[in-house]
Amino acid sequence: MFQMLPTLHTRPMLPTPSSLPMLLTAASLMLCACGEHAGQDVASAGAGATWRWRAEKMEVSALSTPMVARAGRGSMIDARTEFFDSDRDETKAVGQLTVVVRFDSNEIGRQSADLAGVGGHARAWDSVTETYSMQIPLTIDPLPGRVVVLQATFEGVDGSRMTASREVRWPETAR
């Protein structure tokens, strides 16, 4: 009889359903190992993992702008706060942000923003300056050339607490 010669399969070998989870796991591990910062996106801290880009520092931005009273609108201040991660890059924060405006140690304005949900971020986040913007109406008009103090307090959903302040000089003329 004729001897059987080995033949090549012309159709592709498909994975069997039982080997599919193993192939997906291997592919995921290979993708995660790529890049020079592999494994650095999540850092171990205590009992669990923490997000690397979480807010660690808050500042009241120099972009905060006083707005002198005009016809039909009282004085207000556009208070801008910014958050930074451990690399000093701007980041968003999740929690409750409150800004108080003080003039001669008296509170003349206050506003809070709930940054725990998407709605609060949509209302307060300015993507151009990467700051949270809150327009705070004032109960009195500060004297021209005088200084008001913006005091910001943040309470994160993870229990973190941050404070920051900045002095803003009230303009001599209307803007």
Give the SSE map.
Elements: H1 20-32, E1 42-45, E2 48-51, E3 57-60, E4 65-67, E5 76-84, E6 90-91, E7 95-103, E8 106-114, H2 118-124, E9 125-126, E10 131-137, E11 147-156, E12 161-169
Antiparallel strand pairs: 1-2, 3-5, 4-5, 5-6, 5-10, 7-8, 7-11, 9-10, 11-12
What report would you give on this structure?
With 175 residues, the protein is mostly beta strands. It has a domain of 113 residues: Macroglobulin (MG2) domain (Immunoglobulin-like). Helices cover 11% and strands 41% of the residues. The chain contains two helices and twelve strands. Strands 3, 4, 5, 6, 9 and 10 form a six-stranded antiparallel beta sheet that branches. A hairpin with an 8-residue loop joins strand 4 and strand 5. The longest helix has 13 residues.
Terminal CA distance: 103 Å
CATH superfamily of the domain at 57-169: Macroglobulin (MG2) domain
Q: Give helix % range.
A: 10-25%
Residues in β-strands, percent: 35-45%
Low-pLDDT segments: 35-48
Kindly report the average pLDDT value: 80
Mind telling me which CATH architecture of the domain at 57-169 this is? Sandwich
By DSSP (H or I, 4+ residues per run), the number of helices equals 2
According to CATH, the fold-level topology of the domain at 57-169 is Immunoglobulin-like
The 3D shape can be described as: elongated
Number of strands: 12
The SSE string, one letter per element, is: HEEEEEEEEHEEEE
CATH top level assignment of the domain at 57-169: Mainly Beta
What Rg, in angstroms, do the CA atoms define? Answer: 28 Å
Largest sheet, if any?
Answer: 6 strands, antiparallel
Query: From the helix content, strand content and strand pairing, which structural class follows?
Result: mainly beta
